[in-house]
Design the sequence.
C-alpha cells in the first residue's frame, strides 16, 4: 500500500496541555481522507503538524516517504476556512499572482488558470474584482488558489462553510475530480456529516488528542451504529433527562443520548418500540413536538464515539 502521509507517534504539548498524544495515522495516495473531531480534540493541531505548519514536540511525519522537513514547498496546498483573498484583484489576477509565488512556468500557468476557472464555474467572472463576487464564488476561488500550483496533497478546512446547495454541489464535484481525475490526496475537515459521508473514502475520528476510530463511512455506520434511530423532540426539553432515564428501562434499547435538545434512541426494530416510547411519554404527562424514525447516520456514529455533537 502506498501512503502519501504517515504520522508516527506524533505528539504536541503546549505547556501542561497535551493537544496531540502519540498519534499514528497513514493516509493513502489518491484518497479523500475525512478528519473529524469535536472542537479542542486535537484535529487542527494534528493537521497543522502533518502539513509542516507546526513543529511537533515529538514524532515523525513522512510525506510520500520523505521527512516533511525535506519536501518541496509546492507539494502541499492548503485551503483554509477563512477566505484568503486579494479583494482588489480580479479572479484571473489572483490566480496568476499565486502561481507566480510558486514559480509556475507561464505556459503551464495560463492553461492551469483557464482550467480552474472553468472547473469551478468562474470563467465568466475571470475579470471581475474579488470584492464584487458572491460568497459562494469567493469560496470557490479560495479553493482554486490553493491548487493552482498542482500540489500532490490538498488540505480542505471546512470547504463548504456557508455555501448554498448549488455552490456546494460544484465544490463536491471538484473535490471528487481531484481524487478521481488528478490523483491527488485530499484531507477534508468538516462539520457537515453528509459532506464527510459523501466525499470520504476513509474517516479518522480524533478525541482528546488520540485517534479513536479509522474506517470507511460504510463500516463505521455498520459496526458502531447498529439499529435505527427514534428521534424525539419534547415541547419542554428540560424534561429530557427525566424521560431518558425511563427510556433506558425499555428492553433491547441499545443507547439513549441527548443532542441539540433532542433525544436519540437507538434500537433494533425501532418501529416496534414506538408504542412503548409513547406510553412512557404519556406516563410522565409530556408532549412531543416532533418524532421520527430514521436510519443510522455518521452523525450518530460520531456521538456514540465522542459523546458529543461535532460543533461542541
Sequence:
Amino acid at each position: 500500500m502506498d501512503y502519501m502521509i504517515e504520522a508516527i507517534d506524533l505528539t504536541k504539548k503546549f505547556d501542561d496541555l497535551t493537544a496531540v498524544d502519540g498519534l499514528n495515522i497513514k493516509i493513502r495516495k489518491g484518497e479523500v481522507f475525512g478528519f473529524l473531531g469535536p472542537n479542542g480534540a486535537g484535529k487542527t493541531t494534528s493537521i497543522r503538524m502533518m502539513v509542516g505548519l507546526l513543529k511537533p514536540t515529538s514524532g515523525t511525519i513522512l510525506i510520500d516517504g520523505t521527512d516533511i522537513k525535506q519536501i518541496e514547498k509546492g507539494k502541499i496546498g492548503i485551503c483554509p476556512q477563512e477566505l484568503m483573498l486579494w479583494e482588489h484583484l480580479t479572479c484571473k489576477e489572483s490566480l496568476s499572482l499565486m502561481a507566480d509565488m510558486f514559480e509556475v512556468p507561464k505556459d503551464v500557468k495560463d492553461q492551469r488558470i483557464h482550467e480552474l476557472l472553468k472547473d469551478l464555474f468562474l470563467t465568466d467572472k475571470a475579470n471581475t474584482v474579488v470584492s464584487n463576487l458572491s460568497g459562494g464564488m469567493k469560496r470557490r476561488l479560495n479553493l482554486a488558489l490553493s491548487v493552482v500550483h498542482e500540489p500532490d496533497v490538498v488540505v480542505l478546512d471546512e470547504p463548504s462553510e456557508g455555501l448554498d446547495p448549488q455552490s456546494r454541489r460544484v465544490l463536491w464535484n471538484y473535490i471528487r475530480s481531484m481524487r478521481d481525475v488528478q490523483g491527488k490526496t485530499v484531507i477534508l475537515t468538516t462539520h457537515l456529516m453528509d459532506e464527510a459521508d459523501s466525499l470520504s473514502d476513509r474517516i479518522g475520528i480524533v478525541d482528546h488528542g488520540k485517534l479513536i476510530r479509522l474506517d470507511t463511512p460504510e463500516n463505521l455506520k455498520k459496526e458502531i451504529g447498529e439499529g435505527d434511530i427514534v428521534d424525539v423532540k419534547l415541547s419542554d426539553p428540560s424534561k429530557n433527562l427525566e424521560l431518558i432515564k425511563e427510556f433506558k428501562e425499555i428492553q433491547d434499547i441499545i443507547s439513549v443520548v441527548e443532542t441539540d435538545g433532542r433525544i436519540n434512541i437507538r434500537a433494533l426494530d425501532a418501529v416496534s418500540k414506538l408504542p412503548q416510547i409513547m406510553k412512557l411519554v404519556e406516563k410522565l404527562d409530556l408532549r412531543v413536538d416532533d418524532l421520527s424514525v430514521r436510519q443510522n447516520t455518521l452523525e450518530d456514529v460520531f456521538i456514540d464515539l465522542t459523546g458529543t455533537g461535532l460543533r461542541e
Q: What stands out?
A: Residues 35 and 258 are 24 Å apart (CA to CA). The mean pLDDT is 90. Residues 3-221 form a domain with the Rossmann fold fold (CATH 3.40.50.300).
